[in-house]
Amino acid sequence: MRNYLDFLEHYCDFYDDLVLLEKEKVSVIVEKKPFLLEAIIKKEEAAVMKAQGLEIKRRDMQAALGAPERTLQQIIDTLEGEDLLRARRLRDRLRGAVETLRVMNQTGADVIVGRLKQIEGVIRELGEQAAAGQTLMNRSV
C-alpha cells in the first residue's frame, strides 16, 4: 500500500504542475500574448502523454493491490491509521487540482470566446465599411 500511496503523491505532484501550466496559459491569453502559446501547447502535449503513462501505471498498481476496478474512495475505505490519513489528504489534494484545472480551462475558453467575438465584430465592421466604400466608388464612376 505504501508504494501505491507514494505513487499517488507523485500523481498529485504531476497535477499540481499541470495547474501551474494551465495558469500560465490563461495568463498568456488574458495578457494577449499569443506568441507565447506555442511553447505552452508543446508542454501541454508532453503532459498529456505523461498523464496517459501515469494512468496506466495507476491501473497496474491497483490491479497489483487486488483492486483493479475500485475507485480511490473505495480503496480509502479499506485503509486504517496513517495510510488512511495520508490517502485522504492525497484524495483531497487531487480533487483540488482537478477542480482548479476545470475552472482554469473554462476561464481560458471564456476569454478565447470573448476575443473571437471581438474579432468577428471588427471583421463585420470592416466589411460594412468596405461595402459602403464600394457603393460610394460605384456612384462616382
Descriptive account of the structure:
With 141 residues, this protein is mainly α. The protein has one domain. It is 87% helix and 0% strand. The chain contains four helices and no strands. Helix 1 runs antiparallel to helix 2 and helix 1 packs parallel to helix 4. The longest helix has 60 residues. The chain is elongated. The relative contact order is 0.12.
Record keyword descriptors for this entry.
about 140 residues; mainly alpha
Large-scale geometry: elongated
Report the count of strand segments: 0
Helix share, percent: over 70%
Element-by-element helix/strand order = HHHH
Mean pLDDT: 88
Structural class: mainly alpha
Radius of gyration: 24 Å
Largest sheet: none
Strand content: under 5%
How many domain modules?
Answer: 1
